[in-house]
C-alpha cells in the first residue's frame, strides 16, 4: 500500500504563485520559501482588513483514541470538496511540531489523498516559525537568568520564576533540571525545566495576536515570575519584548501551501490543546476569512478540549464566529468508546457502536450549546459495516443532525462531496447563533465550573483552597476578565483517561492554576498534564533518513 | 552618523534572481527564501562539480582586539572591488549566530558600505540553517537519554557521555546543568550542559562535508560517549544519523545573498574558530570556486587560530588551496598590541605602532610558511596618521609584502580597489605553493607541537600525562591521521590573553583533548575556552525591537 509520503511525493505540485492566484492573492504579496511554500506579507494582510468575512467552519472530533479519527484529513478533504463544488474555500491548519515527528505520532499534514504538501518540508522546519518561537522563548529565559546574574535590580525571587525554557523536541531528560551550576561565572543555581515549543506561552501569544502591535504588547505582558513580596515581573520589565517581537516578525506572516488537489491552505502556528488553546493562528484564520467565502479550520484533540477553547478563547480574542461545526468520528473509535479492545475492532459490533455513540452525541450536543449547527463526518474505514453506520446515522438524526460517510482519505475531494454539500446547507441555512459559553465578567472559578458542568458533565470541580486563593489573587491583580484554558486528558470527558464514552457526575480535580497574562488566559490544570513528551523505545527517528537520491524517507 | 542598519535599509536590493544571473546561476537553481535570499539547490551544486576551479583568496587578520579589525568588511569590500574591476568574483562568508546578536557583539554582516544584505534577515534566523543544526544536535541528545531510559542496550556509561545539548543563544545558566531529575518518568539523572550552536560538532560536520553522503557518514561517526570498558558509541549506533541528515538536508544547500553593491555572496555555516575550524562551509567555498574566477573568503579570529585551521583542516578536507592571503590590520589595533590603552588610541603614537607591528609581522610570516603570497589590508580609521601608516608600509616591505590602505567601510568598492589590484597581482603571479603545516602521518602530539612551535612561537607544549595518554588512545582507535584543532584564546599567540604583540618562548598548557570523529579532528584545549557565552549587563537585546512600521531596529 502506498504510504502518505509515497502519495505526497507522487503528486505534481503547482508553483506557489499559481496556488495563490487561485484565491486572488497577487504575486507581490508572496514571500516565497522554496518553490512550494510562501509567507503572505504583513502589508498584504493589513490591506485585506476592510474586506468582508467569509463563513467559518470548525472541524472538531470525538474524544480521540490511538486509532486516530482524522480531523486534519477531514479538514483538508472538506476544503478540497468545497472548492471542487465551486465554493471559494481556504483551509487553515496548525503547523506540525518536530517532536512528535521523531517520536511515535508522525507528521501532521493529513494522510492518504487528503494532505497538504510538500509533506516533508511542512513536517521538518517548514518556514522556521517554531524555531523563531523557540528562540523568543529562550531569549526571555536567558534574560531572566542574566538579570539575576547582574544584580537582580527588579528583585525577582529565584524560587518564584515561572518562565521555563523550550525546545521543539521530545526530550524527557529536560523536563526537570537544575540550571546555572558550576560556580560564580555561571549564575545562581535554581530549579528549571524545558517544555516542548508548542507548550510555550510564546506559541499561544503568537497564535492569538491580531497584529504586530498586539504581538508586542502580549509579549510584554508575559509574567516570568514574582518578587519576594508577590509582585509580577514581566517580559516588558526585563526589556525583552522588543527583541522577542523582532525574532517573531517574519514568522508572524501566515504560510501558504497547497493541498494535493492544488487548493490553497494556510498552515500557521500550533499551540498545545491542553495548556494552550490548540488551534492555528488568529492571523491565518482572519486572513483566510478575508480571502475566501468559506474557511475550514480545525481544533486539536476532542471537542471538549480543542473546540471549547477555539470558541471560548480564540473566537473571543479574534472577534470571529463560526457558521457551522463538523464533528469527526469513526466507527472504530465509537467501538472503543463502547468498550471494545483494540485487537477486536475489525469485527462488526453494532451494540458497541451503540454504546460508544454516547461520546459522539455529547460532543455534538456541546457544540449545539454554543449555538452552532452541526454535521457529523463519519471517517470511513473498510472494516465499517452497513449496520454499524446505520446506527450512527439514526442516533445523529435524533439529535437533529446528520452523519455523513466520508472517504476523502481514499478518494480525495470526491470522498467529502456529501459532507461539503451538507456544510454548504448549514451555512446557507444561516442558523448559527454563536455565543461563548460564559461571559468575561464571571469569576475565574465560575468559568472553570461552567466548562466542567456544561461540557464535561462533571458534578463538581474540586478546587483546593490554595488554588482557589490563587484564582482570587489573579482577579485582584486585574486578570479576572480573561477566559480559562482547562488542561486535562484528551481521552475522556473527565480527568481520568480510562473513563471512555460519556461519563456523568465525575468530579474535576483542579491541581494547579497558572496565569498566562500574555496569551490572555488562566490555565487550569486537572490531573497530570505533560508539557514535554518523551520518545518511545523505538523512536520514529530511527527509520528516518535520506535515500540514494537525497530524498527524505521514513516520515509518516 | 548613519548606522550599519541605516545604510543597509537605504540600499535598493536587486531581486535575488538578478544577483544569481550576474554570476551565471540559472533561475531553476534557486530555492528562494523571500525576495532577497535563496538557497542553491543541491542538484545544481552537483552539476557544477566538473567545472574548473577559480582562485581562492583567504582573508585573515592580526590577533583581534575589542576595537575590531574588519575581516568581514574587508572580504566584502575586496569582493566588490574585484567585481568592479571586471574580475568575476564571489565571496563566501560565515552565517551570524543569534547569540552574539543579542549580546555585545552585534551582527556579523560587515559594516558601513561593505555589507551583505538583507542585514536584519541574515542576522536573525536567515534561512534557518542554525536552527536545523541545533535541532540535529538536540535530536541526538534526546536519543542518547532515551537510550538510557529504555534499558541502555549499548551499555553507555552515563558518566562518560560527551554529547552536550545546544542552543543558539548566549545563556550561561545552561553551561552546566543536572538533567533528567524528577524521578522515574524523566530518566536517569546525570550531569549535562549546553553549548552555543556554533560550538556543536554538528556545525563542524555541516561545514566540512563535501556532499550529502559525506554529511550522513560524518554524522554517523560522531561519538556520543563510551561504554564502561571504554568502547566508543556513535550516532550511527543510536540510529540517529539518518534523521539528523534529514533535518539538515535543506540547510545543506548554500545560501545566496548580495552585497550592498549587488554582487553575489554565499553565506553558509559558521563554526567557532576555537573548538571548531571557524570558516564557512566547504559546500559554499567549493561551489563559489566553480562559479567564479576569484573567491574571497574569511577565517575567524586571528590568523593563528582561524587561518591555521582553514589551511590545515578545511583545505585538507575539501581538497582546495588558496592562491593568496590577505591579512587585515588596523593602526588602532597595532597601537593596542604596542601597549596603548583603549582610551588613548585616538592620539598619534608611531612608536607604539612600531612595537605592535610585531603581531602583524608574525601573522604575515606564518601565512608565508604555508606557501602563500600575502598582502596586508590596512583598514583605515580617520584617526590614523600618515606617519603611523608609513611605519606599517615600511615594515611590511621588509617582509616582502605590501600594506595597502583600505577605505571600503566608508567608500565601498572604490575603497578596496588598490587592495583588489594587489590581489589580482598575487594571483596572476602564480607564486602560491600551498602546503599544510604538517602531514597526516605525524602523531597527534607532534601535530599540536608543530602548530605551537611554528605558528604560536611557543617553546613547548605542556601535555599532562592523562592528556598524552588520551591522545595515544585516539591513535590506537584509528584516529591518528586527523588534523588537530587547537582551542586557545584569540587575543594572544600564547594561551594567556594578556600577552599582546608577539610573545616568544611561552609554554602552551594543554588542558584537555577531545575527539570530534564526525568533524574529523582532535580538539586540543589550551586554557579556558568558553563554549557558551553569557549576556552582558545591558544586552543588545534590550535595544532591539520593531518600529511603528514593523521594521527591525536596534540591530548593529
TrEMBL record, chains A, B:
GO terms for molecular function: ATP binding; formate-tetrahydrofolate ligase activity. Its EC number is 6.3.4.3. Pathway: One-carbon metabolism; tetrahydrofolate interconversion. GO terms for biological process: tetrahydrofolate interconversion. Keywords: ATP-binding, Ligase, Nucleotide-binding, One-carbon metabolism. InterPro entries: Formate_THF_ligase, Formate_THF_ligase_CS, P-loop_NTPase. SUPFAM superfamilies: P-loop containing nucleoside triphosphate hydrolases. ATP binds at residues 65-72. Gene3D superfamilies: Domain 2, N(10)-formyltetrahydrofolate synthetase (3.30.1510.10), Formyltetrahydrofolate synthetase, domain 3 (3.10.410.10), P-loop containing nucleotide triphosphate hydrolases (3.40.50.300). The keyword Endoplasmic reticulum does not apply. It catalyses: (6S)-5,6,7,8-tetrahydrofolate + formate + ATP = (6R)-10-formyltetrahydrofolate + ADP + phosphate. HAMAP family: FTHFS (MF_01543). NCBIfam families: PRK13505.1 (NF010030). Belongs to the formate--tetrahydrofolate ligase family. This is Formate--tetrahydrofolate ligase. It comes from Teichococcus oryzae.
